[in-house]
Automatic annotation (TrEMBL):
Belongs to the KHG/KDPG aldolase family. This is 2-dehydro-3-deoxyphosphogalactonate aldolase. Pathway: Carbohydrate acid metabolism. It is an enzyme of class 4 (lyase). It comes from the Bacteria. The keyword Ligase does not apply. The lineage of its organism: Bacteria, Pseudomonadati, Pseudomonadota, Alphaproteobacteria, Acetobacterales. InterPro entries: Aldlse_KDPG_KHG (IPR000887), Aldolase_TIM (IPR013785). Homotrimer. It holds the Pfam family Aldolase. Its EC number is 4.1.2.21. GO terms for molecular function: 2-dehydro-3-deoxy-6-phosphogalactonate aldolase activity. Keywords: Carbohydrate metabolism, Lyase.
Length: 206
């Protein structure tokens, strides 16, 4: 299992921070209808494992569903029990990458420095989340890709929107984690769909 085919289909990771389980399926359906098929539920959302379970049950055959803000091995186990297949962390912890891979999850850990990037790749990370991207720039991505192993996928997260994504894409970013520019707690499925459409156009997948 790899993240690459999902990013090839559409390089946007939908971050549904704050979503409630009763909203998850309607929002998930809206995202898939617009071609966004990687969905992350941060674990600091209300009852996140239930949202992951509902999304995985409804869309797991055609979407990559997983958890963000993962910080412990116990949480990794919870993701697996809920049917998730993706682990995203906010920080650089090779031990969590190893634990996720051992359980068959795709691992996309957070990093901010070259040292962290190399350590995470050494542990088997499938892709790297550049976070918070507001502390970096597209030129940082370009410089990192010059020294990281060929084919390394960097996904900036933080400040991603239809307006900012094109510069990061031009620098070589393989994907983009989008949170508040796509979904805010209480948003309707229709509002999410409209934003998803604009984001897809921004990355050239209209």
């Amino acid at each position: 299992m790899s993240l690459a085919p999902w990013l090839d289909a559409c390089p946007i990771v939908a971050i549904l921070r704050g979503i409630r389980p009763e909203e998850a399926e309607a929002v998930g359906a809206a995202l898939l209808a617009e071609g966004l098929n990687v969905i992350e539920v941060p674990l600091n959302s209300p009852r996140p494992f239930e949202s992951i379970r509902r999304l995985a049950a409804a869309f797991g055959d055609r979407a990559l569903i997983g958890a963000g803000t993962v910080t412990t091995e116990e949480e990794i186990a919870g993701v697996v029990r809920a049917g998730g297949r993706l682990m995203v962390t906010p920080h650089a912890d090779p031990a969590l990458v190893l634990a996720a891979r051992a359980r068959g999850l795709i691992a996309c850990p957070g990093f901010l420095s070259p040292a962290e990037a190399f350590a995470l790749l050494g542990a088997g990370a499938d892709a790297l989340k550049l976070f918070p991207a507001e502390m970096a720039s597209p030129s940082v991505v370009r410089a990192l890709l010059a020294v990281l192993p060929k084919g390394t996928a960097i996904l900036p997260v933080g400040g991603m929107s239809a307006q900012t994504i094109p510069a990061w894409k031009a620098a070589g970013a393989a994907g983009f984690g989008v949170g508040s520019a796509l979904y805010r707690p209480g948003d309707s499925a229709e509002a999410v769909a409209a934003r998803a459409r604009a984001l897809r156009e921004a990355v050239g997948f209209a």
